[in-house]
Amino acid sequence: MVKRISLAGEDCPVARALDMIGDWWSLLIIRDAFDGVRRFSQFQTGLGIAKGMLATRLRDLTERGVLEMAPASDGSAYQEYVLTEKGRGLFLVIVALRQWGEDHLFQEGERHSVLVEKESGRPVMRLELRSAKGRVLGWDETTVRKTDEGGT
After folding, report:
1. Where are the domains of the chain?
2. Alpha-carbon span 64 to 21, nearest angstrom
3. Which residue in 47, 70, 57, 50 sits closest to 20, CA to CA?
């Protein structure tokens, strides 16, 4: 088996983010947490993931501060997994992956889930990258610049 290397010390935010998340199972767990899944058994049933693998992913996400354990919302003796502020910060990442998948992984007319606004029931608008002045930017209109040691 190939040993996983850590990207936690890289100067690239994408590499560090991928190191934090770990793998695609973790992103699916986070997706389900945004959809209201909170208990181990719900994650296991919904994802069809082996219990041992799920336990490892939930432990890692909890240790990394993406999820936290909380008393069950129904007052029972169970514990639930809830997204932390760090975890909730991944919402746009999940939405971006969703929208990319909608654009590139389904045939026209093929059935799939859609992210909608709760209040109106209408699909949410597409994510866009905008300049400081509000203009929509394409991939070829940006570049990565290294920051100074002070972060500027």
Report:
1. 13-141
2. 9
3. 57
Question: Letter for the amino acid at 53?
Answer: M
pTM for the model stands at 0.86
pLDDT digits (tens, 9 = 90+) for 51-109: 999 999 999 999 999 999 999 888 888 899 999 999 999 999 999 999 999 999 999 99
Cβ pair 91, 76 in contact under 8 A: no
**Beta partners for residue 79, in sequence order:** 71
* CATH among 3.40.50.720, 2.60.120.10, 1.10.10.10, 3.90.650.10 for 13-141: 1.10.10.10
Select from 3, 50, 60, 68 the least CA-distant residue to 26: 60
Residues 68 and 82: beta-carbon distance below 8 Å: yes
Q: Which two tokens stand for residue 106?
A: 């389904």
CB 29 within 8 A of CB 57: yes
Instruction: Report the C-alpha gap between 97 and 89 in whole angstroms.
Output: 14
